[in-house]
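Filed under: proteins

Residues; backbone shape codes:
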Amino acid sequence: MRRAAVVCLSVSGLTLMLAAAAAARADDAKPPVTPEQRMQLRFPQKVRVGDLIGLAVLDDSHSTLGFVREVVREKDGKVELVIGYGEIFSYLGWDTRLVAVPIEVVGIRGRELASLDMSRGEYTAAPTWRQDGATVVLPPDATIRVALCRGY
């Protein structure tokens, strides 16, 4: 009787492990969510470009990454924020360089922007932004959509 119970438990455990492995494979089979899709899930709202200029961009630990200098539309139609990013003293504007941040990776939270899908390391590794002939700086009265960010 005991042996039958042990065999039954072993079979049940094996069944559970196989079911968990199948569920993990099913999760792996799902296509990855693009930044654009992730932004749509965050209920993007209309915001005037002029209201974004000067806003702080914060990382996960509420440290300031930089401040929005410009909002641009690239030649492919994507909107990017140009951030004055610096490792140290960026809040003073010292030792900063311009980095383009896709609008899809930030969320607005009151009078600040949260960097939701771009880490500090990605800001450091990002190339320095330079305006080319195809890039259009959006005027302050233009309206774009920015995802919402609640407490993080």
